[in-house]
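JOB MANIFEST
job_type = single_chain_structure
chain_count = 1
residues = 193
[input]
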Amino acid sequence: MSNRQYFVAAGGFGFIGILVMIIGTLLISGYGLDIVKYGIERREDGPGIDIVRQILNAIKLIIVSFVYYIIPAVIAWLLYTLLGRGILTVLVVLIIYIVFAFAQFMAICRLAKYDSLGAVLSINEVIGDIPKIGMLKVLLTIIAVLVIAFIIAFIFALVYQVNDILGGILLGIFGVYATFFYNRAIGLLYSQV
């Protein structure tokens, strides 16, 4: 086999690997949205796998994230252009990003509940959901989930130092589990709206 054939074969396997990774990531994101929905409905069972719906859900999540981060980016650009980079501008931009991060959090829950981009892109209604739960409760839930995830990831990282194959497998499994755990927690939180 010539060098050119090796490069073609390697490129083909690389493309297939990237494609599998993208589809897997989309499936996990879409399945995570179903877990949020089940949490909102306080169901004890887990959602089934529906590849098409879950990939479409993941695409909706990408759209929602784009919208909720492009708006503060545009506002930040306008403020920096008009007011310069003073401390006041930085504080205002920081507050705007925090508000939109909370709004994006609520938007994901609304997307799971209503399965409608229209319900999610109504930013006033989305922001209106935050006081219904309580900003402190939302923040504490996010912090608690992140702390638990960090502790478990740290333990698996120690295992990885001892045995990299076992540690790598455990970290991979934990990454998926942590995503599902987080989605279940935010679904249960949003069920209070």
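[summary]
The chain has a mean pLDDT of 83.
Helices lie at 3-40, 51-83, 87-114, 117-121, 123-133, 135-162, 164-190.
exit_status = 0
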